[in-house]
Amino acid sequence: DTPARFLRITALYQEIGLYDEARQYMERGLALTNPDENNFIHWERFLHQGLSLYAKADDNRLAALCGEMLLIKSLSDISSSGMLTDSFASGRNFQILAKLRYQTDLCWIRHFAKTGDDTAARTLATQLTEQWIGNGILADDLYPLLRELDYQDILTKSLNESFDHYLALLVDYPNAHNLKNGAAWLASRSIMRIPEAENLINDALAEEPRNPAYLDTRAEVYFAQGDRKNALDYSLRAWQDSLLTQNDPIIKAQYYHFKNDPLPTQK
To answer: Where does the pLDDT of residue 233 fall: very low under 50, low under 70, confident under 90, or very high at 90 and above?
Structure first.
């Protein structure tokens, strides 16, 4: 047995939702992997897998610790390689580190909330909304989490600031369909300002009717409206076009989100 084999089995079990089995194989593989040897790459991949797996299995403290170890190693690698002096590499690495920091902080928010430290959870959630204002990444994970934790005041403030930021940009760039999609995506995931989101995404689709991202946003707006049938219809169209272009696993996951998740309720 090799670490690579355990990593593949872990990913397969996680993909079908058998998190206990995935965790067993991941931890057995990690035990075989010495980060000081040539197979360090497997150790790093196990940490990435752990960040995702433990979060899905609701062991958020372990997920966050995997993220913290990855951040420490990544910062060390960047510093020792001299990439901080290369403007292009620095920008690219900053984006990677910022996304990893965001994913790790999501796990800490869940952990703090679950263990009763509401102040820490709310403080960190507020910091994320301020750091990522106007960025669609907020809608991917944080907005649903804020709804789940009933941090409606943080969600409302963040959505309004980000949505109005997009509207201000659209005054100067009225034909920018990507901005319309971005605003609609944020609104749809927060279950707020849905009539405005519907108008914006319809305009975007009028410009690019087969764009998988726009079709997915239209599905999310329908889902926010409680219309599962049309959400699935548009999501399937997005998935079909995605298969032709880039085979996007996120679009695939979205389809099962619309199929299986309970319809949201207004708060």
So the answer is: very high
The answer to whether the beta carbons of residues 50 and 61 sit under 8 Å apart is no
The set of residues, in sequence order, having a beta carbon less than 8 Å from that of 63 and lying 6+ positions away, is 50, 51, 52, 53, 54, 55, 104, 107
Query: Cα dist. 167→105, 175, 196, 238 in Å?
Result: 28, 12, 10, 25
In this model, does residue 99 exceed pLDDT 50? yes
**pLDDT tens-digit map of 175-220:** 999 999 999 999 999 999 999 999 999 999 999 999 999 999 999 9
In degrees rounded to 5, what are phi and psi of residue 84? -65, -15
> What residues contact 169, with CB distance under 8 A and at least 6 apart?
176, 179
Structure tokens at 156: 């409302």
Q: How far apart are CA 32 and CA 40, in angstroms?
A: 11
Contact between residue 208 and residue 177 where contact means Cβ atoms under 8 Å apart: yes
DSSP 153-215: HHHHHHHHHHHHHHHHHHHH-TT-HHHHHHHHHHHHHHT-SHHHHHHHHHHHHHH-TT-HHHH
Q: Contact, 222 vs 231, CB < 8 A?
A: yes
